């Protein structure tokens, strides 16, 4: 499904972070949102998911304003992995991943064959089978992040919005997660949008990027065009060195 922001102005207490942002994310596209700390990436993801009200403008899914969609319809359509999470959950990994099915079966205890298959598949994809019966509260940071991604996979929304999905993951699990998210877009025609801090993963796995500048400007387009040395130096406000490894350019700050 198509996720669109139209003339979106976001901010807090009447003060805007950026104004009149327009972006359209199509089925089958994998998007990266990049920018410095505090530029408004999480704020944008919250607005795309209907969790905060824009100062002006709107977000829509298939032309329907997110603000007008029933919460249950929204949860069946769009899945969010947010940065902040309360750590009060006292159940097992399996219980937690099964929560992903809540929007579809309307019950925390409800089970259905398709849902259980998705839960098992999500555990497998995030390499969590051996941890399925462990209490979530006893896991390491990276293990917990994989569990949170697995819950989102079990939810199986049409649009995936993820805030720093690679947080706490070791580099091998980062690669696994990025390939998986890219494949959701490439092979299942899902719309995937994620906040990333690593420009290499963005250039390797995202079709498109949205660059949010500290001065409120925004630039969107093909990752291969926008992730240039000049753009990244301006975006992050630091000098970048281009390293070419196996014909792939990596930009590393000095
Ligand atoms: N509830 C709030 N009330 C007031 N200001 C807020 C609120 N939430 C965030 N901000 C401010 O809005 C700005 C954007 O925050 P946001 O979390 O979107 O940044 P970000 O780009 O995701 O940053 P990071 O890379 O550090 O996660 C920051 O300056 C932040 O301090």
Automatic annotation (TrEMBL):
A Pfam family that the UniProt record links to this protein: ABC_tran
GO terms of molecular function: ATP binding; ATP hydrolysis activity
Xref: InterPro entries: AAA+_ATPase, ABC_transporter-like_ATP-bd, ABC_transporter-like_CS, P-loop_NTPase
Transport listed as a keyword: yes
Highest taxon above the source species: Bacteria
ABC transporter domain location: 3-239
Keywords: ATP-binding, Cell membrane, Membrane, Nucleotide-binding, Transport
Entries under PANTHER family matching the protein: ABC TRANSPORTER ATP-BINDING PROTEIN, HEMIN IMPORT ATP-BINDING PROTEIN HMUV
Protein family per UniProt: Belongs to the ABC transporter superfamily.
Protein name: Iron complex transport system ATP-binding protein
Organism phylogeny: Bacteria, Pseudomonadati, Pseudomonadota, Betaproteobacteria, Nitrosomonadales
